[in-house]
Specification:
271 residues; Jelly Rolls; 8-stranded mixed beta sheet; 4 helices; 21% helix
Length: 271
């Protein structure tokens, strides 16, 4: 139901240049778009699927990224930025994520207890053949979704606490205490888990791997408590509050290029 609704939103056409100053044309169009967007949100909630929601990546395609999704690069580095564009893919709005020897992510601040589940739909049209997430020289991803947690500092091993402090001092930003990243990877099979080669405070889980075809939409739905327990459970007996959700891609280590899409990123409540 929700997907059909958003498909309709994507097909609302802006007035042509010839008619742009005709308020009798413009006002009904704007009103219909607003009403339809509101009805999409209401119909989705009515289905009982959404708890506390993340902002969409954008509103109307071509109007830019929603301001709650803030771009982040590597502090102190002069690396080309990954390109993010809110567009239409297959008749529905989607976030296009394109790398060209670049690095970048979109970060959505979100503070509160971890919702039951996180769901989304994604595809990778162009992979990174040289990427290898197990080593620093290959630590690139064509697409990833990460959740940052406010894990109590007392649960973190002493040496890692010191690393967090040093990293924070070097970048001028507080480092997340625990980050769980879901990856689309073309070297390892789905189910592969590991620790980021640069920092043990970031751990990953491959959801779509060598068995997944490029250019095909695939849906994901993850229970955060289960995944956090699998990757960080040795340190923490509970799931800490969430501080942010991130969508990103990078190809700076392997000097490659990639193209991917993601949409319908949302929290789901218990059912």
């Amino acid at each position: 139901m929700a997907r059909t609704c958003w498909q309709t939103v994507a097909h609302i056409q802006a007035p042509t240049k010839k008619k742009c100053c005709d308020t009798t044309m413009r006002q009904p169009l704007l009103l219909s778009a607003i009403v339809l967007i509101a009805s999409c949100a209401i119909s989705t909630r009515a289905a009982g699927q959404i708890d506390a929601q993340l902002a969409p990546f954008g509103m109307m395609p071509g109007t830019g990224i929603h301001p709650q999704w803030q771009f982040r690069g590597l502090p102190g580095k002069t690396i080309a930025p990954t390109a993010f564009e809110w567009t239409v893919m297959g008749g529905v709005p989607a976030l296009e994520v394109r790398t060209e020897r670049s690095y970048g992510l979109l970060r959505h601040a979100w503070k509160g207890a971890a919702p039951a589940e996180l769901a989304w739909r994604w595809q990778v049209a162009q992979t990174l053949p040289k990427a290898d997430i197990a080593v620093k020289s290959g630590d690139d991803a064509a697409l990833k979704v990460c959740v940052m947690f406010d894990q109590p500092i007392a649960e973190i091993p002493l040496l890692q606490r010191a690393s967090l402090s040093l990293a924070g001092a070097a970048t001028g930003e507080a480092m997340p205490h625990a980050t769980l990243c879901y990856l689309w990877d073309n070297r390892y099979p789905s189910g592969t888990t590991g620790v980021n080669p640069y920092t043990s405070r970031v751990r990953y889980m491959v959801l779509n791997g060598t068995e997944s075809a490029a250019g095909v939409w695939l849906s994901q739905r993850r229970r955060l408590a289960d995944d956090f327990a699998q990757l960080f459970g040795a340190e923490s007996p509970h799931t800490p509050p969430v501080t942010a959700v991130v969508v990103g891609a990078e190809s700076d280590n392997t000097q490659g290029s990639s193209l991917a899409y993601i949409d319908q990123l949302r929290w789901l409540s218990n059912r």
